[in-house]
Sequence to fold (87 residues):
Amino acid sequence: MKPEGAEVVRYRLARAYESLAEAQLLLANDHVRTAVNRVYYDCFYAVAALLLAEGHSSPKHSGIRALFDQHWIVPGRLPKTLGRFYR
Fold:
């Protein structure tokens, strides 16, 4: 992977951690719907980083979900429950 690709992976992982921290704060303050939104983005950023690290990307959320299923869930690299959780 080129250095700029690795930088994007690091950026997306940082965004995932940030979204998770936001979700925890929101949930602690009874903002459940907004916390769920932040958890979704946590998953999105983490999955996008994972796919990019393997040379896959998509400009659309639906494309990221499809690539995740294609490269990680269907081959059994991760359990189907994680695919369902992300969707």
Remarks:
- The chain has one domain: 3-86.
- The chain is about 80% helix and 0% strand.
- The chain has a mean pLDDT of 95.
